[in-house]
Amino acid sequence: MSLFSFIGSVFHNLLYVPIINLLVVLYHALNFIHLPYALGFAIVALTIVIRLILYPLMTSQLKASKKMQELNPHLKNLKEKHKGDAKMLQQETMRLYKEHGVNPAAGCLPVLVQLPIIWALYSVLQLIVKPGIATLNEINAMLYSSSIKLVHPWDTNFFGLPLGQTPSHLISIIGPIVLLIPILTGVFQYIQTKMIMVPSQQPAEKKEDKNGKKKEEDFATAFQTQSLYIFPLMIGFFSWGFPIGLSLYWNTFTIFGIIQQYRISGLGGFKDWVDKLNGRKK
Question: Is the confidence at residue 201, as pLDDT, over 60?
């Protein structure tokens, strides 16, 4: 067996199949209490369960990201102070990290752990939103117990919207109202991205130097500025061509992330906006 085959087998047996079983159990539970659109709500419930499992890792990542952003002004000062002296810059940077108890790699491990789980969830959703007997048989073949096997194909509609269809396909059938799906997906992603930013380090404006001239943005600031707008637009564009079931999962995932972000660092990048609305001074 090749390495790729081994990794694929581990991924399938340890993540993909367990997630399918969990989804089916949630579906049966919701169907038992006669909740309408049980499959759609099962996707929401599954996403919340996954987010709860990842909660400690996400918290660690968000806290590490917040600390790194708070150190950005100090890092910029060090770069200006030790221009042309890479060794001294490295030493002073490590000293700064040590003084503030920051580990630059702390935010990387949680992301690496989350990615396989998120990809498995994404792969499961690609399968389950497909209607028909073939999908039913494929799912039943992976279930651990015959007691939870699906007897009939499940309803893939959610409040009248077919979870397996894309907004780009449905616009000619339902009309412009379906545009709300990619728009809301992009808006939720923007809110989460904005909240991650530290209020005092918003990338929208360039600071002025002593002579009143605006300083040029460094690469990190420019990248942050671009990602604030480009990433939500990309996610919104992708949701236009992806099945609605995937957008339902992504939006649930994002809304949960917004709540978690608020619990850790409050409004974050939205604090300045809220202060302006409330008539407060910065």
Answer: no
- Regarding whether 84 and 194 lie in a shared domain, the answer is no
- Identify the domain containing residue 265 by its residue range: 165-282
Identify whether residues 151 and 257 lie together within a single domain: no
CA 69, CA 199: separation in Å to the nearest integer? 10
Which stretches of the chain are DSSP H helices?
3-11, 17-32, 38-81, 86-99, 108-128, 133-140, 167-170, 180-196, 219-241, 244-265, 271-277
Say yes or no: 3 and 143 in one domain: yes
**In contact, 197 and 68? CB cutoff 8 Å:** no
Rounded to whole angstroms, how far apart are CA atoms 198 and 269?
A: 6
Say if residues 155 and 220 touch (Cβ distance below 8 Å): no
My answer on whether 96 and 233 are in the same domain is: no
User: What backbone phi and psi angles, to 5 degrees, belong to 210?
Assistant: -65, -25
Give the Å distances, CA to CA, from 116 to 15, 107, 165.
8, 16, 25
Please state the pTM of the whole predicted model: 0.78
Instruction: Look at 102 and 44; give whichever has higher pLDDT.
Output: 44
User: Within this chain, do residues 34 and 169 fall inside the same structural domain, yes or no?
Assistant: no
- Choose between 34 and 268: higher pLDDT: 34
Phi, psi at residue 280, to the nearest 5°?
Answer: -90, 155
C-alpha 116/C-alpha 262 separation (Å) is: 25
**Under DSSP, is residue 145 helix (H, G, I), strand (E, B) or coil?**
coil
- In this structure, are 184 and 252 located in the same domain? yes
The total number of structural domains in the chain stands at: 2
